[in-house]
Amino acid sequence: MALHEDEIPVDESIIRSLLARERPEWADLPLKRAGAGTDNTMFRLGDDLLVRVPRNAHNAGMLRKEQTWLPRLAPLLPLTVPEPVHQGSPSDDFPLPWAIYRWIDGAEAAPDTVHDWAAFGRDLAGFVRTLHGLGTMGAVRAGDLAGYRGGLLRDAGHWVDRGFADCAGLVPGLDTLERMWRDALALPDPPGPHVLLHVDLKPTNLLARDGTLHAVIDFAGLAVGHPDAEHAPTWDLPAEAREAYRAALDIDDATWQRARAWAIIVGVSGIAYYRDTFPAFVAECHARLSNILDADSPHVP
């Protein structure tokens, strides 16, 4: 099902034609769908490769960004990240750039793939510490690197209010979530410098192997900006992982509240936008918001 009005449909026959045109040595390898996100559709190619195809022109730009940055970042990061092996060109068969990467063995972070959630949270914090410690590597917050999740909370207000309105009656505890968002708006702006951000460290982008965090994938949202929103997806994780992550990075209360606000508005906007088209993602957003409410509720022993 299409998720965006300007989405360009793609299927295995189109992927075969793209491969025959640009990488004929791979054109006859086994090909099967390997998942889909809000930005791209994926196909596993043979045993060792992954084809990523953008859903629309906006996401094609994000894919090109990965091709530029991943080779620079990979040697500097403590976990495995995707390795681009081919940058596909637009054609009559598919009018946008596309890409091929090395396949990374692993499974999405989940209760049956992670053995120790506290250790997982600390490992994720180590990855974030290293990434943010790179500064901006000469980049500035502009163009493809100006993702909204690296900006200030107040700059998101024009669409956040609409998201809350669209979620009326759909999200339990919505009034409490909106109060948290408003309270975070009243906090001082982040004091630190801009850094490089992954911005989407949710479980589907964190691959476990042998029970531990092995790889971080999907750098399409890579941005330069304030680090608050980087911490937001920890509300997709169990409390043990989230608490270990925060402790490992020694995140102060104001930063944590701003991060929680980012988690709220991304969850609310996701439900509002995808409620009729992407039920799995909407379920992720509901789970995130439930975790936020649970963490805010007093627990009586």
UniProtKB/TrEMBL annotation:
Any one GO molecular-function label of the UniProt entry: kinase activity
Keyword Transferase attributed: yes
Superkingdom classification of source: Bacteria
Presence of the UniProt keyword Transferase in the record: yes
Record's keyword terms, sorted: Kinase, Transferase
Pfam family, one: APH
Ranges in coiled-coil conformation: none
Cited InterPro entries: AGP_Transferase, Aminoglycoside_PTrfase, Kinase-like_dom_sf
Domain Aminoglycoside phosphotransferase: start-end pairs: 31-262
Entries under PANTHER family matching the protein: AMINOGLYCOSIDE PHOSPHOTRANSFERASE-RELATED-RELATED, BIFUNCTIONAL AAC_APH
Protein's name according to its UniProt entry: Aminoglycoside phosphotransferase (APT) family kinase protein
Species lineage: Bacteria, Bacillati, Actinomycetota, Actinomycetes, Micromonosporales
